[in-house]
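# step 3/5: fold
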Amino acid sequence: MGKASRTKVESSRREKIAAQQAAARRAEQRRWILIAGGSVFVVIVIVVAFVAFSANKKTPTATSTSSLTGTALASVVSKATSVPASTLDSVGNGGGAVTNKPITISGSALTSGGKPEMLYEGAEYCPYCAAERWAMVVALSRFGTFSGLATTHSSSSDISPTRPPGRSLTLSTLANT
């Protein structure tokens, strides 16, 4: 093989190698563009999903028909806090229906700042606790005036999933009168 033909073969080989290197660079660029584009796409999908989830999230409104607010709440609180003493006295201890009647205990009274204290333990979501809170308001209203009473809703899944949320109230402050 002569020098001219060797030069032609080497030149052809160099061109092939250069073409392969250029193709490899283009493939590498395409790979990085796909990775960057895919990452941007994934971030956009996550943001859109988050926005869609937040937009479809149902939040309770103050104007719900199952809420007591304004005049309705004032009416209920007024009725619960103004039960006549004669009515409460006529109920007494419940008669024969109560099997575990309260007993008198001895010892010093639980007080804070010279005023009697009472412990109530219940849960906001509990419908039974809600009923107890209304009874406490009736009973404690004989000793003072409540302020800051508000309603809450018990869990709709506590007893039966189809039962609407029960109305309850949040106890606030009882001022001595």
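# step 4/5: annotate
Residues 60-66, 160-168 have pLDDT under 50 and may be disordered.
# step 5/5: archive (pending)
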